[in-house]
Amino acid sequence: MTVRIVRLANFVMPRSGGLRTALRALGEGYLAAGHEPILIVPGERFSDEQTSQGRVITLPGPVVPFTGGYRVLIHRRRLAALLDELAPDRLEVSDRFTLRWTGRWARERGVPSVMVSHESLAGLLTFAGRFGSAWADRLNARTFNSYDRILCTTSWAAAEFRRIGAGNLVQVPLGVDLELFHPGRYTAALRDRYATPSQVLLVHCGRLSSEKRPERSIDALVALRAQGVDAVLVVAGDGPLRAQLQEQARGHAVHFMEFVAERTAVAALLATADVVVAPGPIETFGLAALEALACGTPVVVDAASALPEVVGEAGAAVAEDFAGGVLRVLARPAAERRAAARARAEQFSWPAAVAGFLDVHGTPAVTPSAVPVSAVPAASVPTAVTVS
């Protein structure tokens, strides 16, 4: 039976971002499995169109100040009326800040609901000081009481719910496009543009905002060069910290790319790098890091985040010494470290993620061949090893 899955999301950048990638891949998977996905997101103006991920409805939403362009859905009455009109069989919500009220809407109408936790509320509220953790626990308790299921993509992401006794948790990892992100995307001309044959090419790929800690990648480059390592850094991404980071990087071997909208261009950059640095301390999954692994490039990540679960032994997890992590990665033979990266990424596929999400919704594929029955469940993903 075809099921109408209405999905709601805020904080979706119009051209890039991990959430945008995940929403698109899951929507395409739901559609291929024979269901009817409908995505509702905020934007500059109203639109309603059929896309590769199903129907996408954009409602006007204001820009959140100091976020670099993120928009939110704030008109509850209008959104509730639209939900009533769409009459979903399932509700999937990817924002627990401003959309938590939709759990109550679904419960009152007997619609099974799932909240997907794409961010760490406890991590984000650490910026609020010593009271941040208490506020996070209070808000998280309201969230798990509002929805039938809370879906987390890593054990790390689930921890903030587990510690307050949430009993409706499920864990399903996200995936990666293993054809688009592939070692074969290596581009000699791209490498020649940024580095000589003897130089180490580092890449930072991600949003340039405070929670991502992009300044750490520049610090790592400076520390490596101070130790005599002839390295260069390419920063691919945009965000509110761009001008500040450019000032920090002045006089160092750092190149800032213009915004890269084409996914094949991102894949080429990741495949051409020697090491990717992903320094965000509150990442709940880290799609960009997984995409780098799929391209055969090892990743150095923050040990405090969820990324060690994803990267495993295909990179290095460090507390602060990202330069040291890069050196440990480079100490492995190039062929060995690149093969390990690709092998790790192959354990995460979008068909497996789609199958897991549909299982949480209680909606098997209408077209069985669309989602492999051999999809890897979250529990079977190998435990990550943190390199300290």
Automatic annotation (TrEMBL):
- EC number of this enzyme: 2.4.-.-
Identify the InterPro entries for this entry: Glyco_trans_1 (IPR001296), Glyco_trans_4-like_N (IPR028098), Glycosyltransferase_grp1 (IPR050194)
Q: Pfam families under this entry?
A: Glyco_transf_4, Glycos_transf_1
Give the domain of life: Bacteria
Question: What general EC class does the enzyme of this chain belong to?
Answer: transferase
**Where does the Glycosyl transferase family domain start and stop, copy by copy?**
199-344
Ranges for domain Glycosyltransferase subfamily 4-like N-terminal? 17-179
Supply the alphabetized keyword list: Glycosyltransferase, Transferase
> GO molecular-function annotation terms?
glycosyltransferase activity
Q: Which PANTHER family match?
A: SULFOQUINOVOSYL TRANSFERASE SQD2
The name this protein carries in UniProt is Glycosyltransferase
Q: What is the lineage of its organism?
A: Bacteria, Bacillati, Actinomycetota, Actinomycetes, Micromonosporales
